[in-house]
Amino acid sequence: MFQENLFLSVLFLVFAFVAAIQLFYYLYFYLAPVTYRRIGKSSAQKPVSVIICARNEAENLSEFLPAVLEQDYPDYEVIVVNDCSEDNSYEVLGGNMLKYPHLKVSNVNKDPQFAHNKKFAQFIGIKASKNEILLFTDADCTPGSQHWISGIVSNFSDSTDFVLGYGGYLKKKGLLNKYIRFDCMTIAIQYLGMAIRRVPYMGVGRNLAYRRNVFFDNKGFGSHTNVISGDDDLFVNSNSGSLNTSVEFRTETHTRSVPRSTFNEWVIQKKRHMTTAPYYKPRDKFLIVLEPVSRVLFYTTFAVLMSFLFMWPYLLIIFGLRLTTQLVVLILAQKKLNEPGLAGFSLIFDIFSPLINGSILLANTLRRSGKNQWK
After folding, report:
1. Which residues touch 25 (CB under 8 Å, ≥6 apart)?
2. What is the separation of C-alpha 221 from the centre of its chain, rounded to a whole number of angstroms?
3. Domains in the chain, start-ordered, CATH in brackets?
4. What pLDDT is attached to residue 343?
5. Which of 87, 136, 220, 352 has the most beta carbons within 10 angstroms of its beta carbon?
6. Rounded to an integer, what distance in angstroms lies between the CA atom of residue 335 and that of residue 338?
7. What is the pLDDT of residue 375?
């Protein structure tokens, strides 16, 4: 009996400790985007090069590219890197070039002896750009408004090298869509919140801007050329700092991407994104891993302790405090990031997401691929 009480007492201390970690993340990092206020943003409309890499994206280019080309901005070019496409992307782009003189196209021809990933296409686009500020998005993305470029650029000052934007997914029917949007939103409040707290660690290529000279001064993607993904997050992780990084996530500056339609397609996409995780800075890996690990421990220790009804009133108080904090932050975050209808699913998604992500990460670790996949 004594040993059982000792074990449960230790377990309760673990529960209280991981609950404190959870509250720290929510109140310090995740709440930061909600309470963030823009201060001293620039009104100068500096020249911009928008870069889009596309492979077999004719349908998406036809649907979404005009919204990028029709931005309310005085001086910008759009560079589309048509990378080994085998559909009618060339015809779609050619038609747009006749209508929009600020559209430029760089074609990369297929070479059976030279397999390359997206970073090569990105490099081609950057080399072709003429402006210092580079703004990146994907072919399947649409900007939130005609003020997307002006909103992002307003965050650049003399000391700013990176601006991290929000790239969400289009809202569709079904539970999978809700989970994809929930996963995207929670990742966003983490990387945006950490950047606001001066611990930037990643950005998303669907909505990311940085200076051209930063790319070349730091040898581009040289340190992680052979990693499948990472043209966005690894570059930010390697070169962003506490003083050179800003954030922008007003609704008019969001981008929205086409979500995967099946769970298997999403898992494949997620696996590709997670190939970058081992290459983050040690500090960032620790902060990223600590939260889901503490979350799993939080739910596990709560379940065990409740099964014994050990100090159950205190268990419920701590659990309720964490749950209330979570719901409040997520409700405010979904409003800030224009992601309605997600907070109600947060409890079930919150329990299963670290298990899903952990399984995908483990699968990547056990089966490292050497293929230079593009997408």
Report:
1. 291, 294
2. 18
3. 2-33+283-366 (no CATH), 41-279 (3.90.550.10)
4. 86
5. 136
6. 5
7. 57
